[in-house]
Amino acid sequence: MTGLSLRNLHVKFGRHEVLRGIDIDVAPGQTLVLFGPSGGGKTVLLRSVAGLEPAARGQVAIDGADVTSRGPEARGVGMAFQNFALYPHMSARDNIASPLQARGVGPADVTARVGAVADLLRIGHVLGHMPKELSNGQKQRTALARALVGQPKVLLLDDPLRNVDAKLRYEMRLELPRLLRSAAAATIYVSQDYREAMALGDQVAILLDGRIAQSGTPEEIYDSPASVNVAKLFGDPPINLLPCRPTDAGNALHVAVAGLQLSVRAERAAIGRACLLGLRPETMSIHADARPNAARAQILATTPLHERLVVLLRAATGEEIVASVLGALPPAGAPVWLSADATHALLFDAETGERITAPRAPREIAA
Amino acid sequence: MAHIDGRGSRLPAILRGIALAAVLVFFLFPILWIFLMSFQSNDQILRIPPSLLFRPTMINYTSLISGKLQTAAGSLDLPFMHNLFNSVLLSSASVLVALVLGVPAAYAFARFHFRLGEDIAFTLLSFRFAPPLLVLLPLSLYFKDLHLSNTYVGLIWVYQLICLPLILWIVRGYFEDASPDVEYAYRVDGHSWWRAFTRIAIPLAGPGIAAAGLLAFIFAWNNFVFALILASADKQPVTVGALAFVTASGIQYGQIAAAIVLSILPTLALALYAQRWLVEGLSLGAVKG
Fold first, then answer.
1. Are residues A173 and A303 in the same domain?
2. Which CATH number goes with the domain that contains A74?
3. Which of A37-41, B191-195, B250-254 has the lowest average pLDDT?
4. Which of A83, A87, A150 sits opposite B186 (nearest CB)?
5. Do B187 and A52 make contact, defined as CB atoms within 8 angstroms?
6. Closest CA relative to residue B88, chosen from B256, B262, B285, B279
């Protein structure tokens, strides 16, 4: 098995189990986005792979070699920390050169390789600067360059865009896939931003309560979240969840929520059970006139988000629903009608939180 | 005085200058007075009213440096220069030993949580607030048995009661303030833990180590009671040696003043030298939380 593989990884701090049995495989050249709420153990997992977590139990293998008992200096991973962790008393050049110097690369080679990676990240002009003289974006690129320069087999990126401003985050989201492809490493990318996960991940693993709650392509997870918790985490604006009790409607289930009448394909066992209906804001539409299968609603607030408008509505029956729509809205104060695309509706068991609707074939979605 | 823009701010600037001058005079006047006294003979010093204008004499310094003191009762041997040498030796050796032992210990206390760690750290701190005389009686008995009385090694050992807790607790704080991620990053780069400690942790805690070392040096330099009890004349530092100025024929104020001036100099020089590390920022803005 090439690339990175984790088997049965456990981390326990005192009586608190942070990770309880993680199995992950990342092939060379692939990026796995590790997604989850803060404090969920994502950083601990990365530290375990890097060999920085003494409490880690389980097996870590890199390119088929078991490195579990090796220290961080002998694992050959590259890592970018969330807080950059640059060496404040060394210039950007020396920061980037550090992994090469540790391996005893000759000075001429060091200069050439540092120059190459600096050009790739467009920080060649600030190599002589000390970290305190760099902007946040330059610090972040320096940290990335340091992780990449040694051409590691495994690349660990701990939410590298967390501490940079929105404009730079947007730029880097475009640039990173190309960089990561050129690195050809098995990459674990920690993120709390669902757009980053969509843009960068070949695979996404959702880390919840110390376990991988679901893993798959970003589209699979978005379209067919395994549970309510995954659905809530993965998606921005977050999914609408409405309590309901499906009734029998022949070859489908009939669900009535917020004045909407939807017919959902799901196991018949769900009939009469307490369920949650999940409606992605992107699958909702707003109309200026009454039409079949649409419910009366009132607009409470509107926020632009990228090319879309995020609209908070209150249905005539009282529920608050978020819709994310393209194009213009009816004039303020005018009555609106809300409809939902039933083919994208998700049905969850209210008790266990598990998805009842069948998984859907992947499709292109607008993030 | 710094220039401040705007005409309206002249008065506050003047007032601030006066306040600063007052504070400086308050703290520096005794030192200035001692400095002036060191160039006067005993007669000039004891004259009332004291005179600011006098014919300076080097007699105090020459007698200190030559080690011969001429008094009305005759010539007296003064081991002051030897005392000064003892002070320098004892203080620097103690601080060096305390740094070698204390900095790695401070690092361990800051980075690792081990059984009884806090208790050990607290015990070491308690050496600072235990009254020295309480420790000295049993110590002097032990020292006699161990043949450590009146040896430099014994004194340097006892001086660790002063230096080690200071260095340990100050440097520990600096290590704790520095993000361990910076050291982790260095290890992930492929460097051993020892190199991460010497190349990253120690330079980043540099200002703290300099401050703690300087403070420990001053405390060691000013110590009186350990050397008074555990050492005899030839191993005693200036603080104890100054007792010799109280002679049968009176107190030699001029020599005392000159001795004070001479004994301030090494500490002052060290403070000026260490200053550039003291003012350097700790993390230099590399880590953003």
1. no
2. 3.40.50.300
3. B250-254
4. A87
5. yes
6. B262
Q: Which of A252, A292, A204, A245 is CA-nearest to residue A26?
A: A204
How far does the CA of residue A57 sit from the closest CA of chain B (Å)? 19
Domain that holds residue A121: 4-224
Indicate whether A354 belongs to any domain: no
User: Are residues A108 and A71 part of one domain?
Assistant: yes
Q: Mark whether A189 and A260 lie in a shared domain.
A: no
Domain count, chain A: 2
Distance CA B100, CA B97 (A): 5
Query: How many angstroms separate the CA atoms of A310 and A301, rounded?
Result: 8
Co-location of A302 and A208 in the same domain: no
pLDDT by residue (tens digit) across B9-18? 788 899 999 9
| Residue pLDDT, tens place only, A162-219 | 877 888 888 888 888 888 888 889 999 999 888 889 888 999 999 998 999 999 999 9
Rounded Cα distance between A77 and A62, Å, is 9
Same domain for A154 and A44: yes
Can you tell me the distance from the alpha carbon of B197 to that of B43, in angstroms, rounded to the nearest whole number?
59
Q: How confident is the model at residue A329 (pLDDT cuts 50, 70, 90)?
A: confident
Q: How large a percentage of chain B has pLDDT more than 70?
A: 90
In a domain, A366, yes or no: no
Contact B182 A88 (CB under 8 A): yes
Q: What whole-number distance in Å separates Cα of residue A104 and Cα of residue A178?
A: 29
Pair A135, A247 in one domain? no
To the nearest whole angstrom, how far is the Cα of B95 from the nearest Cα of chain A?
Answer: 25
